[in-house]
């Protein structure tokens, strides 16, 4: 419909239809785009509110978020608070900043999940020997390190020699993980196939894509992560522990009361 050099990055299909004289089609495309974005936003708000409802029940977030409306059975407080918070962030923050932060968070989580999968398959507390544990640490360090080196080398654009070196290190570390270590825990029904190759490749690709994001975005991500860690260590962790201890105390009292009632019923 259009040469790639003339494509509008902000509204590619809409402007392409307009350029070809199909003005009626651009309105259909625009309406579909608005409908799709609205649906995604509403779905995310509903899901996010329920996440924070559960977090509020553990007291890691303010308990007001855990309040459920007695008639509708929905987390009204969490929905309203998260909607207002998201709206304020979107209103005062550039779209590029939000997009990069979301990309870093998603790729970072994907990498951690892949790393955790390898650890879960090859390490079991009390069963895995010290030598196997040390091998696992070395291999994982090489996998992550070679992935980071590949991303850095791509940013520097210093030719193809570095890719060969980092690729060989990644391949050797993954192969060594497969050949020298036995999986300590295998799923009974279904599990991720091609372990350790699939999660190792996931780490490599995710880290490589992270290398394409600008430095200021990483600084923002580091600051936000630090703020959340400080909140978790000094507030949320203690609040959740106190809430769990209070729950155990209430359950113990209820159990004692039930036993006392049963004993009285038996004696009578």
What would you note in describing this structure?
The protein is an all-alpha fold. The protein folds into 2 domains: about 1-90, no CATH class; about 95-215. The protein has 8 helices and no strands. It is flat, with a radius of gyration of 26 Å. The relative contact order is 0.08. The model has no long low-confidence stretch (mean pLDDT about 90). One of its GO terms (cellular component) is plasma membrane. Belongs to the amino acid-polyamine-organocation (APC) superfamily. Cationic amino acid transporter (CAT) (TC 2.A.3.3) family. This is Cationic amino acid transporter 1. InterPro entries: CAT_C. GO terms for molecular function: L-glutamate transmembrane transporter activity; L-lysine transmembrane transporter activity.
Furnish the topology, listing elements before pairings.
Elements: H1 12-19, H2 23-57, H3 76-92, H4 95-122, H5 130-156, H6 161-180, H7 197-210, H8 215-267
Helix pairs in contact: 1-2, 2-3, 4-7, 4-8, 5-6, 5-7
Number of domains: 2
Mean pLDDT: 88
Distance between the termini: 89 Å
**Tally of DSSP β-strands:** 0
Element-level helix/strand string = HHHHHHHH
* β-sheet strand percentage: under 5%
Give the helix level as a range of percent. over 70%
Tell the overall outline.
flat
Low-confidence residue ranges: none
Radius of gyration: 26 Å
Q: How many helices in DSSP terms?
A: 8
The protein's oligomeric status is single chain
Largest sheet: none
What structural class do you assign from the helix and strand content? mainly alpha
Transmembrane segments: 24-47, 101-124, 136-154, 160-177, 189-209, 221-241
InterPro entries: CAT_C
Domain Cationic amino acid transporter C-terminal: 190-240
Family: Belongs to the amino acid-polyamine-organocation (APC) superfamily. Cationic amino acid transporter (CAT) (TC 2.A.3.3) family.
């Amino acid at each position: 419909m259009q040469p790639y050099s003339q494509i509008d990055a902000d509204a590619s299909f809409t402007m392409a239809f307009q350029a070809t004289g199909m003005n009626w089609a651009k309105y259909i495309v625009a309406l579909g785009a608005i409908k799709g974005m609205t649906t995604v936003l509403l779905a995310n708000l509903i899901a996010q509110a329920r996440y924070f409802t559960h977090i509020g029940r553990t007291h890691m977030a303010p308990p007001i978020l855990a309040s459920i409306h007695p008639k509708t059975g929905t987390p009204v407080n969490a929905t309203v608070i998260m909607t207002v918070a998201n709206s304020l962030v979107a209103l005062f923050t550039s779209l590029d900043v939000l997009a990069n932060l979301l990309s870093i968070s998603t790729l970072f989580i994907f990498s951690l999940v892949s790393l955790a999968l390898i650890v879960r398959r090859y390490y079991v507390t009390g069963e895995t020997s010290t030598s196997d544990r040390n091998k696992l640490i070395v291999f994982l360090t090489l996998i992550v390190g070679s992935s980071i080196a590949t991303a850095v080398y791509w940013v520097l654009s210093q030719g193809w020699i570095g890719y060969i070196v980092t690729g060989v290190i990644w391949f050797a570390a993954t192969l060594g993980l497969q050949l020298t270590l036995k999986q300590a825990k295998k799923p009974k029904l279904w599990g991720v196939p091609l372990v350790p190759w699939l999660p190792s490749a996931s780490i490599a690709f995710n880290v490589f894509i992270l290398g394409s994001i600008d430095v200021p975005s990483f600084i923002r991500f580091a600051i936000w992560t630090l703020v959340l860690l400080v909140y978790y260590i000094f507030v949320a962790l203690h609040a959740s522990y106190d809430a769990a201890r209070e729950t155990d105390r209430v359950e113990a009292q209820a159990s004692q009361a039930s036993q006392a009632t049963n004993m009285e019923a038996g004696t009578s």
